[in-house]
Structure formats: structure tokens, C-alpha cells
Amino acid sequence: MEFFDKLSKKASETYKFTKDKTTKISGELKLKGKINDLKSKIEDVYKEIGKIVYEELKSGTDVSKEEVSAKCEEIKSMQDEIEKLNIEILKIKNIKKCINCGAELELDVKFCSKCGKEQPEEVKNIEVKAEEPANAEQAEVVEVKNADEEQKDETNE
Do 82 and 35 meet the contact criterion of CB atoms below 8 Å apart? Predict the structure, then answer.
């Protein structure tokens, strides 16, 4: 019976690992799809700007700065969204980028393996409980673990 219990436990662990990995991969693919859509939209806005400039120069009028500026703001907004999505992808992959060269690194490394630049320590997420304290000294700070740390703790028990 012990053999079957161990086998069942191992099968459950394997299933959980596979499920977690698949969830991470699908999440990453969804984010990359959104990034590609935004890049395509940015290209369309660039074309619109070109068309606006061409049409106004062709007609002999000055280029409308307001219209072009609005399109540039639209591009900036989409680029900001792409940056946020790239950060989400890094979180899913449990990696960070080198502050100097942009190489992908494990979260706990102190120096970049590509350029050697020292990396800042990762700041853990902290949460302040919302119990209105009489003064700031009475506020309680609670450490919030990442989902991966909780899985490691559960596995070790």
C-alpha cells in the first residue's frame, strides 16, 4: 500500500508542477500577444502621422502640430503599456533585467553574468495593515511572500 501512496503523491506533485508551468507559459504568451497587437497599432499611428504630414505639405499648408502631437501621445501611451506588459512577463518568468546591459538574470544574483555590474537587492513586497493606529509607531508591517516561495514552503513541509 505504501508504494501506491508514494506513487499517487508523486503523480499529484508532477501534475501540479505541469499545471503551474503550463499556466505560466500561457500567461506569458497572452502578454506577448498583447505586446504584438500594441506594436502593430503603433505602426498604424506612425502611418497616420505620415499621411497627415504628407497631405498638409501637398496642399501647401503648415503641418498641424496639435494633430501630430495627439498622435504622438497615443504612441507614448501604447509604449508605456508595452513596458508594463514586459514587466509582467519578467514577473511570470521570475527573472529581472540587468540595470546596465538589460540581460535577463535570476532574481537573487548580485552581479550580472554578462557585464559584471552589481545589481540592487530585490525589495520584498510589504503590506501595512489598515488598522488606523494612533501614531505611525504602532503600524504593523507584514511580509508578503511570492507565490513561488509559498509553494517551496508547502513542498518542504
Answer: yes
